[in-house]
Predict the structure of Coatomer alpha subunit C-terminal domain-containing protein.
Amino acid sequence: MATATHVMQAAKRNMTDETKLNYDFRNPFVICGSTYIPICRGQKDVSCPCTARFLMWFSTSVDEVK
């Protein structure tokens, strides 16, 4: 019980839920459905029938879903 209380107190002190993304805000992008890495305009990507976009290294996995 003491551990749970300690975790809750630490969470209340640091109430941020942010993730830094490596992207250029001036370049339009979509988010990879698997890694949440931005895919900027001009980068090669693959899409599945549900319109989700993925980085190229997931191309074999996306083919399995089709």
Remarks:
- The first strand starts at residue 29 and ends at 31.
- The helical segments are 2-13, 59-65.
- The chain has a mean pLDDT of 79.
- The first helix runs from residue 2 to 13.
